[in-house]
Amino acid sequence: MKHLTGLCNVPASDITSILDMAAIFKKELITPNPSFAASLANKRLALVFFENSTRTRFSFEIAARHLGAGTLNFSASSSSVSKGETLSDTIKNLEAMQVDGFILRHPSSGAADLITGITSKNVINAGDGSHEHPTQALLDMFTLREYFGKIENLKVIIIGDVLHSRVARSNIYGLVNAGAQVGLCCPVTLMPPDASQLGVTLFTDLDKAIAWADTAIVLRLQLERASGGYLPSLEEYSVYYGLTDERLERIQKHLLVLHPGPINREIEISNHVADRIQPPGYSKSMLLEQVTNGVAIRMAVLNTLLSSGTNPEKA
Q1: Are the CB atoms for 72 and 47 separated by under 8 Å?
Q2: Which tops the pLDDT comparison, 237 or 278?
Q3: Rounded to whole angstroms, how far apart are CA atoms 217 and 159?
Q4: What's the rounded Cα separation, in Å, for the pair 254 and 138?
Q5: Beta-carbon-side half-sphere exposure of residue 2 (alpha carbons within 13 Å)
Q6: Are 178 and 298 within one domain?
Q7: Are 117 and 187 within one domain?
Q8: Which of 31, 37, 77, 86 is most buried, by the most CB atoms less than 10 A from its CB?
């Protein structure tokens, strides 16, 4: 692999290799092994973020530093972009500074694929428009495999604004490719027009969806959708599609719950469901575990693309 711009065409064997490597790196996060630090020694990575981010930006930066790489943090608001510089010129100028790879977040779908055509360096998509967010899906898959011991035949329901979600797209591609059964649950106005062609099961009734599923990935509701004609109101969305204790109790179902963050509390997910990391209850939240796993996954992705084949098991 030279780039990771999405999971749409990534072979299942490559996904498995990244997940296996992440398991090794997660142990290193808990019990540091100094020999891992040499993996990306003398490498420089440009974190080129045109959108705000907390979890993704910081976990990439921490992952790079764990592997010995330096990072250059780019902010559009304080760069020449504010003077009219194009994305292409920004990338070319950063490449001229001898960076070894680009981690890009951009509001336009396809931006990551675009820059693979103008740079000889490695490109990792950290989220582009409503297209894909591959490392988020990989960390979700890693979290599920760690908890259940497998991904194949798991029933995974993705709930919320699927139409505009890059997280949903990458999870659908990755999970289906890995043999999971994937369902989508959302209002018809937020269902992608090509959903029936994605190899998934479609739901508009949340109770039926969670009764079917082993685990749920709850998407952040982009609040502007309520005023954009997609939803009558946030309150009605919460009533029909909010994941709550009361809803889980009605069907007597234990559900593993994931969320990419940030969360809108008491809209797409209740406080109790978001915060429950221990029984008793009908759900278990993996939100903070996902954050930890995000560092391990991003270490694995960086190592795979930039380390010239270094195997962490032999480090």
Answers
A1: yes
A2: 237
A3: 6
A4: 24
A5: 8
A6: no
A7: no
A8: 37
Pairing verdict, β 122-128 and 101-106: parallel
Q: Kindly report the average pLDDT of the chain as a whole number.
A: 91
Please give the order of strands across the beta sheet that includes 155-159. 201-203, 181-185, 155-159, 215-218, 255-258, 283-285
Angstrom distance (rounded) from CA 75 to CA 85: 13
> Could you tell me the residue range of the domain that residue 234 belongs to?
134-289
Contact, 243 vs 237, CB < 8 A? Answer: no
Looking at residue 172, what is its pLDDT? 98
Residue-wise pLDDT for 91-121, tens only, equals 999 999 999 999 999 999 999 999 999 999 9
Distance, in Å, from the CA atom of 158 to the CA atom of 218, rounded to the nearest integer, reads 6
Note whether 126 and 166 are same-domain residues.
no
Q: Hunting for tokens 């990439």 — which residue is that?
A: 60
Strand partners, 26: none
DSSP SS3 for 209: helix
Pairing of strands 201-203, 122-128: unpaired
**Residue 2 within any structural domain of the chain:** no
Are residues 127 and 138 both part of a single domain?
no
37 inside domain = yes
Number of folded domains that form the chain: 2
* Claim to verify: residue 152 and residue 208 sit in the same structural domain: yes
**What's the Rg (C-alpha) of the chain?**
20
Answer whether 35's CB lies under 8 Å from 62's CB. Answer: no
Residues 6 or more apart whose Cβ sits within 8 Å of residue 185: 157, 158, 159, 160, 202, 203, 204, 205, 206, 209, 241
CATH of the domain at 64: 3.40.50.1370
- One domain for residues 128 and 143: no
